[in-house]
Known about the structure:
Distance between the termini: 22 Å
Oligomer: single chain
Order of helices and strands: EEEEEEEEEEEEEE
Structural class: mainly beta
Helix content: under 10%
Low-confidence stretches: 17-21, 168-190
Radius of gyration: 17 Å
Number of helices: 0
Number of strands: 14
Amino acid sequence: DHSGNVEEFPCDPIAVDIPFLSKTLVINEFCASNQSVISDDYGEYDDWIEIYNKGNSPVWLGDKFLSDDLSNRDKWKLPYTYLDPGSFILIWADGQEDQGDRHTNFLLDMTAEEIGLFDDPSTGFQVIDRVVYGSQTTDYSNARSIDGGSEWIIATSPTPERSNHIPVYIQNQNAYNSIIVYPNPASGDM
């Protein structure tokens, strides 16, 4: 279901570092147990990590790294491409590098894991962003409640390669002149 509906549940536990090096690239959403959300070009439902450029300029990804082991910062090199401002790139965490430059050499563990995004060797592979998470539910994702924001939610309807921000809109007014607002409950930060 890609209707964009999001239910908020407490994330248990999730630790996020404030990025040391970059305020522009972030791990924006991830799914560590994908069985029906989205398939790759091979029709496989692999786990995935979404990276978002929340800055105002394109960012070169070809000198940056992704890992599921924070002590092994150069485990997998990102594709040779620019990520435009406000854009997303979906990386398949499937251990199948032979399927293309967006397929990692590692898998995500649904019971608990860490994901790190790191800069090039000249910075000592500085941490750009990292997430440490606990047990995951199949076909749910952990997502920033607003793209690039600091608050994380569990999304029952993940949004790979799309905005996590669900706009509030008025559907209709009923006979009592009250307004029905979606999502319900709506929060003030939308």
